[in-house]
Design brief:
This protein is α+β, with helices and mostly antiparallel strands. It has a single domain, classed as B-lactam Antibiotic, Isopenicillin N Synthase, Chain (Jelly Rolls). It has 9 helices and 11 strands. Helix 2 packs across helix 5 and helix 4 crosses helix 5. The chain starts with a strand and ends with a helix.
């Protein structure tokens, strides 16, 4: 049973992620025309329109249509997920992968609804994905500036691929005569293979649970309807030479309403190796250099076990 908690919160209202300036720009938050767009993207009305008008309709498609969302047998985590080993049968998810650009979103929509006018769906999905990608890049830059390695930001950002995943977690079936149901795990305990993961959930249906460094499970409770979660993945942990922790997390749902979320995974195309500034006598190398594709293949081969896959893969 997880306890409820509010994760550390940064207010990005008024931030222009594309023009950070020098120093700790996230504490100054200068307003600009671009920052107005950022604020609008966080509004509860637009979030509801995205989920109710796009995501729910997508997840309501027949199973055969959803299974068309594939990127080949060698990339099983890049497309449709349903009844996946280690994941509950009450979980389904579809994804747009590599670069979430307008033409890729339109191609995805036309694959799902070949004979429909998909302009509204494409606009809503691309708008959400674009803003989440801007936030991911801003947080990445924040981390690099804090660690004194901002020189690496440009190359890392240029190499980044994104997987934009839209997911549904079904409520459990009632298990007693009064119609009550216990919570069930709809996505098992895991760490992400990404540099960063940005999570946007719909409405009041919570479910994300994060394990703290002392082993306690806490449930994320949004500080406002506009809150998003930014979570470090194992590749950021490796790149920072274990200075940034990649938490184990899971999704548990109860009640009688489905949970919907949009998740943006940032996957680096560069070889993952800690910068020289982050390696010294007090901080010797913790992981051997590697590529994200190889790490993801290792994780898929290992299946649903919950041990430290990064350390098993390339730990020193």
């Amino acid at each position: 049973m997880a306890t409820e908690a509010r994760l550390p919160c940064i207010n990005f209202t008024g931030v222009d992620p594309s023009s950070p300036g020098a120093g700790r720009w996230w504490t100054r938050w200068p307003r600009s025309a671009a920052s107005t767009r950022t604020t609008r993207a966080l509004s509860p009305d637009l979030r509801a329109a995205f989920f109710d008008g796009a995501v729910k309709n997508l997840l309501a498609l027949p199973a055969d249509a959803k299974r068309c969302n594939t990127y080949g047998r060698d990339k099983p985590l890049f497309g449709y997920l349903g009844a996946t080993p280690g994941v509950s049968s009450g979980y389904e998810s579809l994804a747009i992968s590599e670069r979430v650009e307008p033409e890729r979103v339109r191609a995805f929509a036309n694959l799902m609804w070949p004979d429909a006018d998909n302009a509204g769906f494409s606009e809503a999905v691309h708008g959400a994905a674009r803003w989440m990608a801007e936030l991911e890049e801003a947080v990445q830059r924040m981390v690099m500036e804090e660690l004194g390695v901002c020189r690496c930001h440009g190359a890392m950002s240029e190499s980044m691929r994104h997987v934009f995943r839209m997911s549904q977690y079904m409520p459990p079936i009632s298990d007693d005569t009064e119609g009550r149901s216990k919570e069930v795990i709809r996505h098992g305990t895991h760490q992400d293979c990404s540099m960063l993961t940005v999570i946007c959930q719909h409405g009041e249906v919570d479910g994300l649970e994060v394990q703290t460094s002392d082993g306690e499970w806490v449930r994320f409770r949004p500080s406002s309807p506009a809150s998003l979660v930014v979570m470090a993945g194992n590749e950021l942990r490796a790149w920072t030479n274990d200075r940034v922790r990649a938490p184990f997390h899971r999704v548990a749902v109860g009640g009688d309403v489905a949970r919907y979320s949009a998740i943006l995974f940032a996957l680096p195309g560069l070889r993952i190796q800690a910068p020289d500034e982050l390696v010294d006598d007090e901080h010797p190398p913790r992981f051997k250099p590697h590529c994200n594709d190889d790490f993801m293949r290792f994780c898929i081969a290992q299946g649903a076990r919950h041990e430290d896959k990064l350390r098993d893969f390339r730990g020193v």
